[in-house]
Each structure stands twice: as structure tokens, then as C-alpha cells.
Amino acid sequence: MANKPQRRTVAPANRPPWRTAPARRSAGLLVAALLLSGCARPGDWLQTYPDIAARARQDPESFVLDVQSRWDDLRGMVGSYQVRASQGVGSRSMDAQIHLLRDRFVDIQVLAPTGSTEAYLVAGEREVGFWTADENRLYRGPNDPGAFGRALGIDLTPAAIVAVLMGYGVAVGDTQPAIRWDEAAQRIRVAGAGTVAWLHPVFGRYERVVVSTPSGPIEIEYEAWSETGPPVPLRMRIEVVAEEFTLELRLAAKWQSNPEGLDEAYFEVFPVSGAVEAPLSLLQAEGGLLRRGLGR
Asked: How many domains does the chain have?
């Protein structure tokens, strides 16, 4: 096995109370969130920035290329996330440390209050692995289409997870996305590879992403971003519309970009002492990482 960095775990940060009602937001944060999410009157910014609006209508491609360049130096990142999953009347909260490497490498470790690992999910070049402490079983199998989504519990590919968590929406790569001005949303619409994202020309951030999957659309709404460097999302909401399944994610204020030693070798499936191994094909989406512990 190739040498790999030692897997790191961190003690979870103190968890702030989850928002359960809009009244818990301060007035200032509410106004900002409404503006950035497009919930405020969509024409306001057009009147405030008429020159930018005119350029966005005439040449939306230049905005997208300029914004995408802000992620050019971000090859990988690691951050501690607070995650809340809910479906029907059931909900579950967890702390996770997530390593990402562009464009399609993912390592998720769910942490116990003591900082030990309760579960891990990794997607490497050729293999996906999923282990949980409660049953001490390691599911592993080829990184075929659908394999990672089944282990995760929602039908997203590793590449989609990297794009969503890093915040760059639709990658501008070998396949050139379709870019146009969306008059109804009054945003720049970027579409490619089953994903549509809406870019705010003034703030230079993707505010909303919709990923098309065989089971229906998955909608991502961003609520806050880092203030320096690339606009990495600090807070977001993911909804699997057809299943009424919702994720709320918060990234800790301190996260690390391009950590030393984070390369493709890090994302190999590693054995767990005493764990029983089983084919990943036996795992159903309902038993995936994000679905465990949820009642309907």
C-alpha cells in the first residue's frame, strides 16, 4: 500500500443551537441572507448596479470564467462540519471531518463526542469504502456509477460532492457548460453534466445548484461563504425533493486549503481491525451514511 498521511480526527467544536425558527436570526443577517439567496426583490441589485447588470446580460461567459478562476489554486481542503439530517419526523445531528480533493476524491469521517471515528466513507480512484462502528462491517466495491451515492445515502457522485462543498457549482473543464442570462432569476445560469447553478454577478458566488438524478432533483441553497480566498460555502441546505430528505451543513470558521500530504493515495480504502468485509453492492441507500438513525 502506498504511503499515506496519517488520518486525522479533531475534537468537535461546541455545537451552536440549530435554527428552528426564522425569529432566531438577527435582522441584519436576515436581510443579508434574503439578498444573497435571491429571496429579496430580485430587481433591487439591477437598479443599484446597472452597469454590471448590462454586462451580465451581454457577456455572461466572462463573469463565469472570472469567478471560476477564484478556485484555480484550491486543489484540496479539509474542514469540520456540523451536519443535521432530517426526513419526516426523524432527525439526526453529527459532526464530521471531510477531506476533498479535486475533482472527485472524498473522505468523510463521522466523529463521536470523544473525537473517535464512528463511521467513515471514502471514494478513491477505483474503489468506494464505507464502515460503521456499530456493526463493524466494511462495505467496499468498485467506484462504479451509483456506488458512492448508495453508500452516502443520497444520489450524488463524488465529483458533485466536491463541487457542492467547495462551492464552484459546475466545473469548467473538458465539457464547456452552457452559460446564459436567466431573466426570471436575474442571475447567470450555468448548466452542464446534469447540474444547473445560478451565479450572482455582483457577489461572484453560486447561490443555488440543482443536480438532476434518476430519483429526482437535489437542490442546494447556499447561505454563507468564506470572506477570504475562494468563496467556499460556510452554510448550506441540501434537499432531496422527492423524498423530503434535508441536510443542513455548517463548516467551522477554521478550515484548511491544500493541506500538506493530501493526494490521491490518501483516498484509498483502508482496512479496519476486526471488521467484517462485505460487497458494497449489498448496501442499499437507506443504509447509507446519512440515512442511519433516521425514522420516517
From this structure: 1
